[in-house]
């Protein structure tokens, strides 16, 4: 049994369902009284509480919804009996006797053998029982929706005891399932609790963990009252809410907590749908308040005060949420003619004029370093959001061109290495989006040409970083391994459709690799850096073809560059089996007398590593 429950706890859905089927009659004996069902439930909880939750998650597949509802109500009676038992014990401790006989009789009806093993002080068992009630309700919620009488009966029964449960079960693990249980009921059925939810959210402190507010927000969204959260957040974003001034209640403004609430709403799809269902006027108000972060960040960058760290972090979070909310509003209201992408384009213009200059600032003073860090975070957040816009198909050709313009300005500043990984992801999305859209061929050619130009600037930026700050440069190369591979893979996959881009990227890549190995040879090093290996592992055949064309046209010349070509051929041979192109490259190299005369040893090494080619 222990082995089966352990499997049930951790195994996949198909296996878990088979285990539930095997154990169902043991822990849910439908032919026996309902009190026995509850006793078996408690037994299963005490054996393995996680397996118990999994068991009741699939129990609805093996019995009727009526039995599931009966078990919920039986667990409710069990909890009530435990509470009554604790109250009676407390009463006897305070008073020697007394007590109404009628109450005693009612209690006896609810007391079973479970009272000998259960106590409200056993919070693990109490929490597990509450969690199982929630799991059971969720499993039959569709059936309850089709049976209004049964649903109203269940709501009435649980609404009657919920206030008492909140008083008795104060442990966090008990409170969470109670709040979820409350969310299944209309707020009018539990007025004491429903009227206190916003107050609970308002009274939380800045920096409160997500677990403190997530269940409350989920509950409000389920009730369709997400507008109350928006009002609270907007109040905190403004300095002096009129309502509070009138009634003379001093409330601390908590913009950080407001951002926590808005971010949680935007991050979770169900809650996001509730948020976007709010009237458009309120959404625009929220967007406007979040957009004020640009002014805050701009003023921080213009000052020399270095003590605004928390304020700048709040501003950065608000700016990121402003950009994200713009995407969701564009997706929802695009058919109504409202262009929220224009706000992102205006943000790009703002970044070019007011943010990029700060990343050009030199020096390591605290103020300059802090300003540069803020500027980099703003640009990073903007590029990430714009990449997502293109990925989901919302960014048109003009939007993509403006993004490339902003990115080129950042990279040409010489200090744009921080954004290269996300920028490569954006270039990949632009290529795929431009090929998926039906746009003019000339406009597509211009766009892809800009992509190729920006890619060249990216490699130049990486090279400068390696030359000036080698350790940081190597860290940058490691961080861009995956986005670079995805970008090259996309270029290679679409090489027949965008031949000019394919050739341009390969030429840029080849020049970068030859230059890198050339630099390595000049320093008398024998080990290729990670960047060369990363480049070559994706495009071996295309790379060899491009290399051969460069040799034929004598674009590669000079002793070190030709030696670098030999190293490239050796490296590719170690990873692939493109014998014909390698042989042609090898033959072209043999025609260079200066290499043949001055580098006999490298060629003999090549013959050792490529025995098949030496025979050819």
Largest sheet: none
Which class do the helix and strand fractions yield?
mainly alpha
Shape call:
elongated
Radius of gyration based on Cα positions: 34 Å
Mean pLDDT: 81
How are the elements arranged and paired?
Layout: H1 2-10, H2 13-27, H3 34-47, H4 49-58, H5 65-94, H6 101-110, H7 123-139, H8 141-145, H9 148-168, H10 172-183, H11 191-194, H12 197-203, H13 210-222, H14 226-237, H15 242-246, H16 255-267, H17 269-276, H18 280-291, H19 293-302, H20 309-333, H21 341-359, H22 366-391, H23 397-412, H24 420-436, H25 441-468, H26 470-479, H27 481-493, H28 499-522, H29 530-536, H30 540-552, H31 559-573, H32 579-590, H33 593-598, H34 600-609, H35 611-615
Describe this structure in words.
With 616 residues, the protein is an all-alpha fold. Among the domains are: 2-185, no CATH class; 412-518, no CATH class; 539-616, no CATH class. It is 77% helix and 0% strand. The protein has 35 helices and no strands. The chain has helices at 2-10, 13-27, 34-47, 49-58, 65-94, 101-110, 123-139, 141-145, 148-168, 172-183, 191-194, 197-203, 210-222, 226-237, 242-246, 255-267, 269-276, 280-291, 293-302, 309-333, 341-359, 366-391, 397-412, 420-436, 441-468, 470-479, 481-493, 499-522, 530-536, 540-552, 559-573, 579-590, 593-598, 600-609, 611-615. The radius of gyration is 34 Å and the shape is elongated. The termini are far apart. 33% of the residues are buried. The model is unreliable at 97-111, 240-249, 524-539, 576-586 and 591-616 (pLDDT under 50). This is Condensin-2 complex subunit G2.
């Amino acid at each position: 049994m222990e082995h089966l429950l352990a499997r049930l706890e951790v195994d996949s859905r198909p296996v878990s369902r088979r285990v539930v089927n095997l154990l169902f009659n043991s822990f849910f004996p439908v032919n026996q009284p309902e009190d026995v069902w509850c006793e078996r439930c408690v037994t299963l909880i005490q054996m393995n509480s996680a397996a118990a939750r999994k068991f009741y998650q699939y129990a609805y597949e093996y019995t009727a919804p009526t039995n599931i509802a009966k078990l919920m109500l039986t667990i409710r009676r069990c909890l009530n009996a435990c509470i009554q038992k604790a109250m009676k014990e407390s009463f006897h401790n305070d008073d020697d006797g007394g007590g109404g006989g009628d109450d005693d009789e009612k209690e006896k009806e609810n007391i079973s053998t479970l009272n000998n093993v259960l106590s409200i002080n056993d919070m693990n068992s109490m929490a597990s029982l509450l969690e199982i009630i929630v799991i059971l309700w969720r499993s039959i919620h569709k059936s309850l929706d089709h049976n209004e009488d049964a649903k109203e009966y269940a709501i009435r029964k649980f609404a009657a005891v919920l206030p008492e449960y909140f008083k008795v079960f104060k442990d966090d693990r008990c409170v969470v399932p109670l709040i979820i249980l409350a969310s299944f009921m209309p707020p009018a059925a539990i007025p004491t609790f429903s009227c206190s939810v916003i107050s609970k959210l308002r009274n939380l402190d800045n920096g409160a963990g997500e677990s403190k507010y997530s269940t409350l927000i989920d509950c409000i969204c389920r009730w369709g009252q997400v507008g109350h959260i928006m009002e609270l957040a907007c109040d905190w974003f403004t300095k002096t809410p009129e309502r509070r001034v009138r009634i003379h209640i001093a409330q601390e403004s908590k913009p950080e907590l407001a951002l926590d609430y808005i971010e949680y709403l935007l991050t979770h799809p169900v809650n996001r749908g509730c948020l976007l269902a709010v009237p458009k006027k309120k959404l625009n108000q929220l967007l406007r308040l979040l957009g004020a972060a640009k002014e805050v960040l701009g003023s921080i960058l213009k000052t020399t005060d270095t003590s605004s760290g928390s304020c700048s972090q709040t501003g950065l979070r608000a700016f990121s949420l402003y950009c994200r909310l713009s995407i969701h509003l564009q997706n929802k209201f695009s058919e109504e003619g409202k262009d929220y992408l224009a706000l992102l384009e205006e943000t790009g213009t703002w970044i070019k004029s007011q943010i990029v200059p700060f990343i050009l600032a030199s020096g390591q003073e605290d103020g300059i370093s802090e300003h540069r860090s803020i500027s980099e975070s703003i640009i990073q957040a903007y590029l990430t959001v714009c990449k997502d816009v293109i990925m989901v198909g919302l960014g048109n050709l003009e939007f993509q061109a403006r993004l490339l313009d902003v990115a080129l300005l950042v990279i040409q500043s010489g200090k744009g290495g921080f954004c290269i990984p996300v920028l490569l992801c954006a270039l990949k999305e632009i290529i795929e989006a431009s090929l998926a859209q039906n746009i003019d061929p000339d406009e597509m050619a211009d766009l892809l040409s800009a992509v190729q130009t920006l890619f060249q600037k990216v490699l130049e930026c990486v090279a400068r970083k390696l030359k000036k700050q080698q350790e940081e440069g190597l860290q940058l190369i490691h961080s861009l391994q995956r986005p670079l591979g995805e970008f090259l893979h996309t270029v290679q996959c679409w090489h027949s459709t965008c031949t000019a881009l394919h050739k341009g990227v390969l030429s840029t890549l080849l020049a970068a690799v030859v230059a890198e190995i050339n630099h390595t040879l000049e320093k008398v090093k024998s080990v290729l850096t990670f960047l060369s290996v990363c480049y070559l592992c994706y495009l071996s055949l295309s790379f060899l073809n491009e290399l051969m064309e460069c040799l034929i046209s004598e674009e590669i010349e000079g002793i070190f560059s030709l030696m670098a070509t030999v190293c490239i051929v050796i490296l590719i041979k170690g990873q692939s089996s493109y014998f014909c192109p390698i042989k042609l490259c090898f033959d072209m190299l043999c025609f260079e007398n200066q290499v043949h005369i001055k580098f006999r040893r490298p060629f003999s090494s090549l013959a050792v590593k490529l025995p098949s080619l030496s025979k050819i």
